[in-house]
Amino acid sequence: MKPTTHALKSVWDAAREHLSAESADNDLVQLDNRLASAFCCGPNYHFVLDFSGMQPEHGTPSIRHVSPSIKSVLGLDPGQVVLQDILDRMHPDDTEFVARAEQAAFDFIYGRIAADKRPKYKVSYCFRFKTAEGNYQLFNHQAMILTTDPAGRLARSLCIQTNIQHLTEQNNHCISVIGMSGEPSYLNLDISQMSAPTPVSGVLFTEREMEVIRLMSKGLTSRDIAKTLCIAANTVKNHRKNILNKSGCRNAGELITRCITEGIL
């Protein structure tokens, strides 16, 4: 068994009590809704990780609903790709961090988040992949629960992986557990010091400021943002000024990079 697979299999084995052995049908509407909640700021692809029916002797989940864009991003055939093909593209030096990040994510979601709240969270961290061009670049990984069994155990999760090399080449080696639908977020967590995380969602930026940041990340100008939010252009400029002051960033590019790498977006 290859090192990356062995490391992740150990995580899945340790988390087996939280994984469902029952088959689960995909709700494609729910899949679309989950994709809409993911922030993708570069070349990306997605797939569904299926834990249902995973046997101890095999130890690895299967993948379904692989997006066609995996061909241009990683050079893999979406009709033939298996999980091992994706794992083989990971930088060997990032294997240990990814395994530790996955273990930390399981521990956090199933140890600190109430069962009915878990589908309202996604996990985000970064690592390097070999691209279709043959060089290693930094990717942001987002994962969220898609389906569970009646006991609340994970059956399928949605994974979205986005190339962010154009934004930053530096990995902060932290994970973020991001609340959706108004749930608190836990950002930029050092996985070696996760004993008492503090929720930070809503503390740094207001909801209106987050709306402005999301539109800024899409390349909209202040005038475009004002039209979209039905507010004055000067109001947008004030929001942008306050956002930069709060974050300590010097410009919009630095702000968006920080928001992505720390899981704020």
Automatic annotation (TrEMBL):
Parts forming coiled coils: none
PROSITE patterns with a match to the protein in the record: HTH_LUXR_1, HTH_LUXR_2, PAS
Pfam families documented for this protein: GerE (PF00196), PAS_3 (PF08447)
Keyword Nucleotide-binding: no
Domain HTH luxR-type: 198-263
SUPFAM superfamilies from the UniProt entry: C-terminal effector domain of the bipartite response regulators (SSF46894), PYP-like sensor domain (PAS domain) (SSF55785)
Residue intervals of the PAS domain: 47-107
InterPro entries documented for this protein: PAS, PAS-like_dom_sf, PAS_fold_3, Sig_transdc_resp-reg_C-effctor, Tscrpt_reg_LuxR_C, WH-like_DNA-bd_sf
Protein name from the UniProt record: LuxR family transcriptional regulator
Provenance organism: Microbulbifer flavimaris
